[in-house]
Amino acid sequence: MPLALALAPIVLLVVLLGTNVYFFADDSSYGSNQMALLIAAFVAGCIGMYRGIQWKAIKDAISNNISQATEAIIILLLIGSLAGTWLMAGIIPAFIHYGLLLLEPNIFLFAACIVCAVLSLATGSSWGTVGTVGVALIGIGTALGISEGWVAGAIISGAYFGDKLSPLSDTTNLAPAVAGTDLFTHIKYMTITTVPSILIALAVFLVVGFTGGAASENVEFASGFGEAVKSKFNIHLGLFIAPVAVLVLIARKVPAAASLFIGVLLGALTTILFQPEAVKEIAGEEMSYAQASYYSTMTSMAVDTHFVTGNELADDLLKAKGMVGMMNTIWLIICAMIFGAVLQAVGILKRITDSLISGVNSVLGLIGSTVGTCLAFNVLASDQYIAIVVPGKMYADAYKDQGLAPENLSRTLEDAGTVTSVLIPWNTCGVAQSGILGVATLAYAPFCIFNWVSPIMSLVVAGFGFRLKRVEE
Q1: Of 49, 181, 217, 456, most Cβ neighbours within 10 A?
Q2: Whether residue 245 has pLDDT greater than 50
Q3: pLDDT-based confidence at 122, cuts 50/70/90?
Q4: Higher model confidence: residue 472 or residue 244?
Q5: 451 and 423 in contact (C-beta within 8 Å)?
């Protein structure tokens, strides 16, 4: 297949996405981007069928690709329900309330990054970290008058640092398995690039915090926020039982979906036990408390929940969309998976990656090509797992030919494949984190300092030949 023909659907997608941003701005992910992905997938499918690919092969690839996103879809639905029940239970308001008392605006980005890093390292789940503590931190940062893009960038930077180094993380286990090394050798070797990357990110967050560079254009002050929250919820430390239980479950390797579902049920129970006023406000005074409890908790799990306090900032933060709020995100993920599946089925991905790997004859060139290929798969296939597995298989022999130990490959796969997925608006990770935090991918992407520095650090280490382990070692 000619390279120009292989690039045609990609160019079309970029043009359509750019046009959508021009016409729809922040609303482009609410339908127009989904259609852009489907149109580009249709064009790619037509190219494949013109070149003799059977429709059945394309359809099977789409089915397989979407099935791989099943767990992600379930987790997103549960995170939506979790946000709703934890709002009703007063858990998220309590996080924001205590966070405002403990955190200063100057150190908030720095502290948020560290908190998410530690939590993600302990649990091995960037999505779990963002979906629990991350949601609360967005509220705290907004209340402190910090730009939500910077807050989301700090949260994601910390969450992906911890995810990348945690032995409990799926991608941290996947990369060495694909490259042909063991888990703890891989983690130890990753520290060479990952630790400097997070230190640079923390330095940036600290400097930006003290210089005021992250202040929101429309600064909201937290004056009266505590009183507004207390007028709707009973705030006390007992509300943190549910989040602590969820984090313990995740840390003990209970599957994320099961842990989150238990968190939803604990949130509902916390609501019934501690928030009778909130239950009555959502359900109405005419119902008995048992009826109101059922109605209000089911509502918070499934659909919009909001509280009106009279404080503009509190009213903006005390709302959640429940499970239905995740449906647009899931819609976008399905369309992105269809696009990636069609490109793979018709041979477009292979043609593009073949052109990337040709002519590579140096260590820096090899690692640079690996970084570029991982980025390309995150953009084209819309999935971080594909961006790890396929380049890992492609380059394994090339690393052997250069005399490089497999941990060089596994580290590069994580430096470029894992952490950049969240920066792509139509990648499953970018879509998910945007939906969870309520911040557009393009709004937070420039501020995910760790995620940008990691692939660059991989190239810097290769360029200087620092700690490039050879096979004979």
Answers
A1: 181
A2: yes
A3: low
A4: 244
A5: yes
Cβ atoms 422, 129 nearer than 8 A: no
Amino acid letter for position 15:
V
The two tokens of residue 425 are 């608006």
Q: How far apart are CA 129 and CA 246, in angstroms?
A: 11
Cα atoms found within 13 Å of the Cα of residue 369, Cβ hemisphere only: 22
Work out the pLDDT band at 39, boundaries 50, 70, 90: very high
Cα separation, 373 vs 176, whole angstroms: 17
Q: How does the average pLDDT of the chain come out, rounded? A: 83
CB 306 within 8 A of CB 281: no
- Does 218 score more than 50 pLDDT? no
Place of tokens 């501690």: 274
Residue 467 contacts residue 411 (beta carbons within 8 Å): no
Share of the chain above pLDDT 70, in %: 92
pLDDT exceeds cutoff 80 at 279: yes
| 160 vs 419: CA distance, rounded Å | 6
List the structure tokens of 3: 């390279």
Place of tokens 């501020």: 447
